[in-house]
Amino acid sequence: MVDANEYPAASRREFLKKAGGTAVLGAGAAAALPHPAQAAISGTETKPRYGMLMDLRRCTGCHACSVACKAEFDVPLGSTRSWVEYVEKGNYPTVSRSFLPRLCNQCTNPPCVPVCPANATWKREEDGIVVVDPDICIGCKYCIQACPYDARFLNPVTGAADKCDFCLHRVAQGLEPSCVNTCMADARIFGDLNDPESKISKMIASNPVTVLRQEMGTEPNVFYINADHSDPRQPGQRNEYIRVDTHRRNQERA
Amino acid sequence: MSEEFAWGLPVISYLFLAGVGAGALTVSASMFLRGGDHGRGMHVETARYGALLAPFPIIIGSGLLVLELGSFQTGNWLRFLNLYKVLNLSPMSIGTWLITVTIGVSLVYAYSYIRNAPGLTTEQRYKLRNVVSWIAVPLGIATAVYTGILLGAMPSRPFWNSPILALLFLISALSTGVAAILLLRALFHSGATEPESERHIVHTGYLLTASDAMLIGFELMAVFLFAMYAQLTIGNVQEAVSVLFTTSSLASLFWVVFIVLGLLVPALIEIYYVIPKLLYHRDFIIPKGVEIGVAVLVLVGGFTLRYVVVVAGQITGPIGI
Which of B88, B104, B128, B129 is most buried as measured by Cβ atoms within 10 A of its Cβ? Predict the structure, then answer.
């Protein structure tokens, strides 16, 4: 069990270790190793599979989630773990503006994991969260290339790949991720996709949901209700005015 | 191109240099083996240039990669050794081990060409050279192929995600390897003492020049297939390859510097000098200046190919969201 007092005093790496992600180098498929902390985190027989649902009927594009994330992790300037894109389209008066909150999709088939040459990133067996150990990562940026969602970046302070980890340190203590906690519109729902009684499972079952870039076969665990999937680069839509504001240093979607 | 690239010039240079080194190693060892005579074959004088060159570009290229690592740049200078604590199915992991072995073998191979090398008699040196050559050929090919697989392994980068990219990089590596050997020989070879030996050198030059023309032919075919099949699909890959068919500076680099200056022009010059011997059994005569010029063009073309591919892969991506 993770000692609540140890975070944030303990290093992130210590935490990852204690929270069940094995950091043993050379152990091969690290994520496959069982760990006693597993049961403590899940608290049930079946392992949880954490996911997030964005109910965009409620999102106002206020960026509170982006700011909370920045504050939670002291994300260096110019980098983002969590961000909100604005999608503007149409010609007056038939126009729309929608918001698309983004973060790591914690994919079921994460393409970033198998390319890591140092076993520094893995999908946690115990809850499905994809994590990076910055003390193992050599910063080769292979995973950054491999992510179809541009969710990863090179942290200029640690020199390691970095990304959203569903606020693992909060989740381990029974709290919601900070972006969910701060969302004033209740647009973000976090929970266990394996638990049919959880709010997220019920919402997904009772609403039409989509995921991003489904054709990549990554099987994201971040779902959207009412998302506008318009992209300026889609060939069929070139005649329509579409503008995407990524609100990131990289002005264009990757 | 205001985007910041995760992989920039160090990676581009690495892909090029590893290709040149792997190509020079493969070409040198295979021509040496083809020359026969257990260590003293007819191509050995030219093979020497490739042997002595090969380790350096691979080592320098790999060194550039290490310097570029995020961990190295934040002061964790030895963090890259984590690569050696693991062997997994990541192309980069396999490639790390492969390139490490290749560097070792290329150094031993180079050592076997050093006259009066300490610790070995001449006979032992010849024997070592013979044995190592058999290992060097497949290792050089594997290293060159790996540089393409490294990029090709990611569906999120549709421009790179092509099985023919590795083949293209292999052919380019062999061609630039030949060019590097001919360039070094043109620069440093100052006539052999025996006429017999000099005749061999001219003949080897002919074979290498003819081989390079053929390699460039294959390379043109690989590029054509790469671009054509991408163009014939619909969606991400077609959209990605379309950056080569625009008026951007990247497309100009690809067509003018790589295709025309790096492939067509050197191939035509090589064919022009090879034809008299090939068809009419006349002597093979190529001015030193031309030999140097052709080699430089091929090398510039090889670098441009890596540059265009690495940049194009990063300015394109899956379309839609």
Answer: B129
